[in-house]
Amino acid sequence: MRLLLLAFYLLCLVSCSEEKALQQQDVLQLHKDKQVSVSLSPADAPVEEVLNWAIELSDGWQIKQAEVTGVSMSMGTIPLLFKAVDGQPEFYKAEMVLGACSQPKMKWQLQLKLHHATQGEKLLLLPFYSSWPD
After folding, report:
1. What confidence category does residue 14 fall into, taking pLDDT thresholds of 50, 70 and 90?
2. How crowded is residue 29: how many other Cβ atoms within 10 Å of its Cβ?
3. Dihedral angle computed from the Cα positions of residues 67, 69, 71 and 74, in that order, rounded to the nearest 10 degrees
4. Residue 88, SS3?
5. Cα(54)–Cα(4) distance, integer angstroms
6. Which of 65, 84, 78 is closest to 123 using CA atoms?
7. pLDDT band at residue 2 using 50, 70 and 90 as cut-offs
8. By three-state DSSP, how is residue 53 classified?
9. Fewest beta carbons within 10 Å, which of 58, 87, 109, 133?
10. Domain annotation for the chain: domains and CATH numbers
11. What is the dihedral sign for C-alpha 36, 23, 41, 103?
């Protein structure tokens, strides 16, 4: 009986570890420095599915403007509205959906304009690729 319980416990641990590893792989880190960190999930950015953006800012930095544009082909401009996470004023989240086009792997770009009262403005141009769902 003890052996059966031990086997069950080990199976649970392995399952949790694999799930956490998959979740970590599912986030694409687009930028990270002392002022800002930008990530996207799921990492393969499937079209016609909800994508989650996350931004972490250091003290004093603010998001002035954020938009996604197609690089491989013109797909218009998609504005992003980041909202602060409750209780964590340095964390911001936004959701979006990319439209499907004729290319299975299309190049996009997040254009992120940041502002700081004493350090001025910072512009990040962060490319990423979308994918067709399996």
Report:
1. very low
2. 11
3. -160
4. strand
5. 42
6. 65
7. low
8. strand
9. 87
10. 26-129 (2.60.40.3340)
11. positive
Q: For residue range 57-68, what is the model confidence (pLDDT) as tens digits?
A: 999 999 999 999
| CA 108 to chain CA centroid, nearest Å | 13
Contacts of 77 (CB under 8 A, 6+ apart): 67, 68, 69
- Look at residue 97 in the predicted model and tell me its pLDDT: 95
Contact 106, 73 (CB under 8 A): yes
Count how many residues are written for the chain: 134
Task: Give the ranges where the chain is alpha helix by DSSP (H).
Answer: 2-25
What does the pLDDT read at residue 17?
42
pTM above 0.70, yes or no: yes
Rounded to an integer, what distance in angstroms lies between the CA atom of residue 66 and that of residue 118? 21
For residue 39, give the amino acid letter: S
Report the C-alpha gap between 31 and 12 in whole angstroms: 34
